[in-house]
């Protein structure tokens, strides 16, 4: 099943600058896709177009093969922008995490279960009673991600999800995203027949300028150049090991790729490199 299908997307900023021009994107259910490009390439705008937060000047986006109305599938579609404040608007972090599932009319016990589970996974237990505006930038980002996940979406769109996050919490976030993609998340009976919908895992679309992050969040890459045009599409390994292509797009190839450039079966991560050397 197709999760998100965009055709002929075009969008210009109010000053007339063209951000997205004639872009087609198809993302299958359960896929992990990265929108990779340098700063200013229009990645965030494209992500917001795909998530239905911004109306295109031309083109359409269809969700789950059913509708072009993003609001009608908002329970199944979560979009986390670069500004955590867009997800954090209640008096406390606990209320922010509970807000989404409460709108789904879930039993209170189920809402509390989801809040407790995600607070534990994202190290938010000691922050639940705090006002969101009193959190640090990294804490706000973790709280916003938890809030996006409490609705247990089928598709999750993330804009630079680990920026301003320390190393330990970055690792936990990446582990959680990997779990969601692989298993479809810990869906429950209270969420209404989730086993059928979630069988492909959660669809993940991540926007980032960070090539080092891509192997951890995506199996396929849509590469944008500095002009905001699609320069290439393909498997993560194919794109990230093409040093010339990345350089032409004003991106720095992953350090481990540069170290092993020219060898067969170039690793994409430190863990892969260690396995090659140990083997």
UniProtKB/TrEMBL annotation:
One of its GO terms (cellular component) is ATP-binding cassette (ABC) transporter complex. Pfam families: ABC_tran (PF00005). Keywords: ATP-binding, Membrane, Nucleotide-binding, Transport. Its main location: membrane. Residues 4-251 form the ABC transporter domain. SUPFAM superfamilies: P-loop containing nucleoside triphosphate hydrolases. Gene3D superfamilies: P-loop containing nucleotide triphosphate hydrolases. InterPro entries: AAA+_ATPase, ABC_transporter-like_ATP-bd, ABC_transporter-like_CS, ABC_transpr_CbiO/EcfA_su, ECF_ABC_transporter_ATP-bd, P-loop_NTPase. It is a peripheral membrane protein. Residues 183-194 have a biased composition (Low complexity). Residues 183-207 are annotated as: Disordered. One of its GO terms (molecular function) is ATP hydrolysis activity. Probably part of an ABC transporter complex. Responsible for energy coupling to the transport system. Belongs to the ABC transporter superfamily. This is Energy-coupling factor ABC transporter ATP-binding protein. It comes from Haloarcula limicola. The lineage of its organism: Archaea, Methanobacteriati, Methanobacteriota, Stenosarchaea group, Halobacteria.
